[in-house]
Amino acid sequence: MDYQQILNQIEAELSAKKSTGKVASYIPELAKIDPEKFGMHLHCINSGHYYFGSNNERFSIQSISKVFALTQAMSLLGDDLFKRVDVEPSGNPFNSLVQLEYERGVPRNPFINAGALVISDILISQLKNPKKDFLDFIHQITDDKSIEINTHVFKSEKEYSYRNAALLNLMKAFGNIENDIETVLDFYIYQCAIEMSCKELSKAFMIYANQGKKLSDNTQILSAQKTKRINAIMQTCGFYDEAGEFSFRVGLPGKSGVGGGIASIHPGQYSVTVWNPKLNPKGNSELGMFALERLTTLTGYSIF
Ligand code: GLN
User: Fold this and answer.
1) pLDDT tens sequence across 35-76
2) Which atom of ligand 1 is found nearest the CA of 257?
3) Cβ of 93: how many Cβ atoms within 10 Å?
């Protein structure tokens, strides 16, 4: 398969394509990014790296961090974890409150904000130094200790976190949050403010393409069985109320963030990350989805 030629074609198609998407502005610091940035990085298990654009530039990973948080929580806890958060698609926006009231404070899945806040609460109870341990985990799976948070993004989101605070208050009232609301909010916003490039995210996501093992040194980060489950949740819940559309168009498990990144994998084959800050109305990168759709169409392979 000539991946470089396929990426060249995707790059050419993107340059001719207009996006109607908008950069996220509810976190004011995110609105400062250049909307035209585009990066793509494909990391193949057998044949190395293919990329174009700003594949090496760091951006705010936002909700892509939810996959790493779930990975850490699943490596610490067994199936009990899923008493506090379900594994069903929500069909609702990422920051929605409505379902939570009906379902008595148990979020539909770990990739909507409510579910990720429960995972943050679990990690705070389990880890000695949650922020440091979380960042150490990212350093471990990327072999890169220079990855950090963007403190401006962190502060900016903290000032406007009314919805996430509301989700936490509601879940606390139902007895599904153990720690202080402020502490959980702070840790959740911290993990969202981590910055990584497409290249670094593809390296981190390689564990999901490679049965839970790092490609660089074969360390087993998560069991193959738990990795399979995370991939299943990415497939069904990774794009909020657009998870069906992403499956329909792209056909790979993946996770998006409001920073405009999408990280995705083809089990046993590759990990791939795309980045363009302009989001569609569901909060997913419009051109990012287009590029991934073209990848699975031009290669002729998806998981389906
Ligand atoms: N930090 C963002 C929030 O909680 C993450 C949302 C996202 O990337 N979808 O609103």
Assistant:
1) 999 999 999 999 999 999 999 999 999 999 999 999 999 999
2) 8
3) 16
Instruction: Report the residue count for the chain.
Output: 304
Q: Which of 167, 192, 242, 262 to mutate to test the pocket of ligand 1 (most atoms within 8 A of CB)?
A: 192
Could you tell me which residues come within 8 angstroms of residue 287 by beta carbon, excluding any fewer than 6 positions away? 14, 17, 19, 21, 38, 274, 276, 278
Q: How far apart are the CA of 192 and the centre of ligand 1, in A? A: 7
Separation of CA 161 and ligand 1 centre (Å): 10
Measured at the CA of 261, the angle between CA 270 and CA 185, to 5 degrees, comes to 120
Q: Spell out the per-residue pLDDT of the chain, length 304, in tens.
A: 899 999 999 999 999 998 899 999 999 999 999 999 999 999 999 999 999 999 999 999 999 999 999 999 999 998 899 999 999 999 999 999 999 999 999 999 999 999 999 999 999 999 999 999 999 999 999 999 999 999 999 999 999 999 999 999 999 999 999 999 999 999 999 999 999 999 999 999 999 999 999 999 999 999 999 999 999 999 999 999 999 999 999 999 999 999 999 999 999 999 999 999 999 999 999 999 999 999 999 999 999 9
Q: Which residues pair with 21 in a beta bridge?
A: none
Q: Is there a contact between 177 and 117 (Cβ–Cβ < 8 Å)?
A: yes
Whether residue 63 has its Cβ less than 6 Å from ligand 1: yes
Nearest protein Cα to ligand 1, atom 10: 95
- CA 199/CA 19 separation, integer angstroms: 23
Assess contact for 237 and 112: CB atoms under 8 A: yes
Q: What span, in angstroms and rounded, lies between the C-alpha atoms of 131 and 41?
A: 27
- Point out the ligand 1 atom lying closest to the alpha carbon of residue 116: 4
CA 301 to centroid of ligand 1, rounded, Å: 30
Q: d(Cα 35, Cα 265) in Å, to the nearest integer?
A: 25
